[in-house]
């Protein structure tokens, strides 16, 4: 007879989470590094009490905002290359719906995240309970149904024994390299407290290791034929290279074949910036070195990338009409995009098998030499953009140059939305794999500070630098206080351009008048004079405002020795951006307008879309 132990559903869940392990560098460690929790009536009595009992094995962290704490959990998983992860629990109502943006972020970026929102009573006796969303035509709906489209797996636990099969499915999704993404288990609050006789085997330690599928022989053969026929091949390295920890395999392949490499936002740092075959960023925010190759390439080996529009210049960048794409990806959905020859496999295994099967094949020397010359030229342009000046309001690029000079490439640099992704993608010189942390799949304003917190928890011995604008800071800054509370030191560089400078530039570039983006162009009676340094200091940080690039470099040097999170504020030019590099992006311009500027931009837009290839 199977031995059992009587526990509440919440107690069984937390014991199960604590028993799940993974092996990293020969060491067995918990796969769940902890649970982020903001308690309310929907989870405090059930899951909250259960978490207290396992707090030594499964730490609980308190944050100040549900979305922010979930961003921290996502960043932790990304910084851990999806080998470890965290969970997040909220009450019902606004706590649960605050998870939706973060769940979408994890879904888009294919990152593991376990969401445990409280839910309504399964018994329905107290209905409608406080914060319950009622559907007039469906008694099974709750606010947590908002999480269905942004979850890889969704379940509602209405009986205590359901947690057993639900967790089996959840762990399969969270640890599968192809299906990886957020899992939502909506926990009815009465069921959290109900007891059941659980089999003791449910709580046995299990070690989860990543699956590394090898390529199909037929797909491998077709990919090899395409590569061998290529004269101008180019590798596009995406985030899957980092998640697979395939940087060494990528470098070996590139060096053995002489094939140049470019990087997506997610794939940046797959190779160090100073690798001679790394052409840097590709696409809308790309370098001239990478984009000139992309326009001519007759074979694109897309490794671990979703090939989204910023990477492909809205599918106008790859202009060679005879080109072929080989999609090396663990997810078939991505491997076959845009008529690619799919090569469904783990990135590391796929690159290794390609290298072995190619033998002594090499890219034509002229193509490799041209690539290296293009990188040299790009470096000169980048150096000019990064150089310090005496401008009253420095550009984002000049601030980036100061951070790079002061802190080097050994830090982990984190950013998300606004103008910084465009500048950092092409200008930041990343070092080790994972040292460049961009959330640009969902481009989530407000991710930055909370994400920095998650990265620092994953890399406690490393320096984590967060760069963000005033718009993102005002959206979500509360986890500065959490970082101080936890003793998790961040260096935060806040660029104040007094509004949404990036979108203002886009507005102007599409023929529009500056409107509702910079604060001065909004409907207002008084423009706020926001003292960001004073605000950050009020949250417990060391904070300073600097007046020049030289002062910024000095403050960054001083921040190295500070004992807690440091926020450095600098005013920047909202209009300046780096002209070198970059590529067209499809943002539709109105066909009809009273403004001549809009009509002029429409004509240019119509010319640009002719380069796009539907289904190509």
UniProtKB/TrEMBL annotation:
Molecular function as annotated in GO? 3D-(3,5/4)-trihydroxycyclohexane-1,2-dione hydrolase activity; acetolactate synthase activity; flavin adenine dinucleotide binding; magnesium ion binding; thiamine pyrophosphate binding
Enzyme Commission number, as recorded: 3.7.1.22
Q: Does the record bear Hydrolase in its keywords? A: yes
Q: Which GO terms describe its cellular component?
A: acetolactate synthase complex
Q: TM segments?
A: none
User: Which organism is the protein's source?
Assistant: Neoaquamicrobium microcysteis
UniProt name for this protein: 3D-(3,5/4)-trihydroxycyclohexane-1,2-dione acylhydrolase (Decyclizing)
What sequence ranges are listed for the domain Thiamine pyrophosphate enzyme N-terminal TPP-binding?
Answer: 56-131
Q: Which PROSITE patterns does the entry mention?
A: TPP_ENZYMES
Task: List each copy of the Thiamine pyrophosphate enzyme TPP-binding domain by range.
Answer: 418-570
Domain Thiamine pyrophosphate enzyme central, first and last residues per copy: 222-354
